[in-house]
Design goal:
Helix content: 55-70%
Number of domains: 2
Shape: elongated
CATH architecture of the largest domain: Up-down Bundle
Radius of gyration: 38 Å
Largest sheet: 4 strands, antiparallel
Strand order of the largest sheet: 1-4-5-6
CATH topology of the largest domain: Outer membrane efflux proteins (OEP)
Distance between the termini: 73 Å
CATH superfamily of the largest domain: Outer membrane efflux proteins (OEP)
Structural class: alpha+beta
Strand content: 5-15%
CATH class of the largest domain: Mainly Alpha
């Protein structure tokens, strides 16, 4: 086989490198969808967020306890010695006083503090659920980035390795031509330098790939094995930027989380104001006593007491707390508008990145095709002495760069399509129909909100 034909064969291997990597062994290959399922099920950040929501659910049960009575059972027993005189008569007696009692207390009115506390913590639960939904968006988007980075970095490494093989063949041909006097020592040195640089690029690409594999393991939970091509999420991307912004402002979890946090803060104002209202309680008790005064005496006492407490002045503490909480409400109301602006800016940002990535893919494909033609032409011209070795090396480097640019553009094309959906607040397992059972925060909430007693969690701990 002629030398230039051998070099062209090496170029052909490099051309198909990315296709070979992305389409390797579809049987049993990990897909982007299955990787997202793994992340949804096992990502520690997401599971931690779910535990936080379950923790927050219990605050509603705690607030509900304000509606219920407080019941206490007490018992005591002891020994008592008495020495004294009554009407000139000295007496000594030893008794064993003891008894048991049941006390029931019930709050009838506390300035609506219990009502507002329940509303406050329900809003807190809803806010935490939206925070969990935002965590889900972030985790799934990070998983997409990790998946596509492994794919693109693997393809880049393969291109660089094939480039080394091509340059090794180029150096061998240059040395052969030097030996017969067709080129100078300068041409050999240029080929050697370019080969050394290519080997350095391989080492850098290997390091980058190892890093991306580590990030993949962190986000998805397993080592990447035989990854299938990733595809854009275009079916969930709206037809226009205005439509994307409208959807984002209506559905983004950060906006809803801020709104529920505002509701919780407003309820807390009413809780604090309730401390200035009269407090009405009723207490009933039954006590059985033995040996309380004389040996073998026995008595039963029962009582029912209503109590009204009217706060007059508490040093100004509650008034200051109310004013302070109202300032917090004002801050959170501003935060809602700030987050809306932030969401809008994120959607515009990702929309622009996606449009740019689409254009870059088209441009990079054209660049690769043009550089392939240019390299073949430069090689033919160099063979007949119209081009130098440096011209061939430069053309080869231009082709390599354009192929790497194409890989990056294709990666960005996929990532930013997911980025738009994530910025809109819709990159969830439920909305994108991932083949996985969606986690429902409401199930745990319904299990614990009305519990009167019980130490075990619903999952048996």
């Amino acid at each position: 086989m002629p030398k230039n034909r051998f070099a062209q064969r090496r170029v052909g291997i490099a051309v198909t490198a990315i296709a070979a990597v992305l389409a390797s062994s579809q049987v049993g290959a990990e897909t982007l969808e299955s990787a997202l399922v793994r992340a949804y099920r096992g990502n520690p950040t997401l599971n931690s967020g779910r535990a936080t929501v379950r923790y927050t659910d219990e605050f509603v049960a705690i607030a509900q306890s304000g509606y219920r009575p407080q019941v206490n059972l007490s018992a005591d027993i002891g020994s008592q010695y008495t020495n004294g005189r009554i009407s000139g008569t000295t007496f000594n007696q030893t008794t064993t006083p003891g008894g048991a009692g049941l006390i029931v207390s019930q709050t009838l009115f506390n300035g609506f503090q219990t009502d507002n506390n329940v509303r406050r913590y329900e809003s807190t639960v809803y806010s935490q659920r939206e925070t969990l939904r935002f965590t889900e968006l972030s985790v799934l988007y990070a998983a997409v980035q990790a998946y596509m980075n492994v794919l693109s970095n693997t393809a880049t490494l393969e291109l660089n390795r094939n480039n080394v093989e091509v340059l090794e063949e180029q150096l061998r041909q240059t040395r052969d031509r030097f030996n017969v006097g067709e080129v100078t020592r300068t041409d050999v040195a240029q080929a050697e330098a370019r080969l050394a640089g290519a080997r350095s690029q391989v080492s850098a690409a290997e390091s980058t790939l190892r890093t991306s594999i580590g990030v993949y393991r962190q986000n998805i939970g397993v080592e990447p094995r035989s990854l299938a091509p990733g595809r854009p999420l275009d079916r969930y991307v709206p037809g226009s930027l205005d439509a994307a912004v409208t959807i984002g402002l209506q559905e983004h979890p950060q906006i809803y989380s801020a709104i529920h946090a505002l509701d919780a803060a407003e309820s807390q104002v009413k809780v604090l104001e309730g401390q200035l209202y009269p407090q009405v309680t009723v207490q009933g008790s039954v006590q059985q006593r033995y040996d309380s005064t004389f040996p073998n005496d026995n008595s039963v006492a029962a009582s029912l007491i209503g109590r009204v407490t009217i706060p007059i002045y508490e040093g100004g503490q509650v008034y200051a707390q109310v004013r302070q909480q109202k300032e917090l409400v004002g801050q959170l109301r501003i935060d809602v508008d700030r987050i809306r602006d932030q969401v809008r800016a994120q959607i515009v940002d990702f929309w622009g990145r996606l449009e740019a990535a689409k254009a870059q893919v088209i441009a990079a494909q054209a660049q690769v095709q043009a550089n392939e033609v240019a390299l073949n032409g430069v090689r033919e011209e160099a063979r007949v002495g119209q081009r130098t070795t440096l011209d061939v090396l430069n053309a080869q480097q231009e082709l390599l760069n354009s192929r790497v640019n194409l890989i990056v553009a294709q990666r960005d094309r996929v990532i930013f399509s997911y980025g738009v959906v994530q910025a809109m607040g819709q990159l969830t397992a439920r909305f994108t129909a991932l083949p996985v059972e969606a986690y429902s925060a409401k199930i745990h909430f319904d299990q614990v909100k009305d519990l009167w007693f019980g130490l075990r969690t619903p999952d048996g701990r």
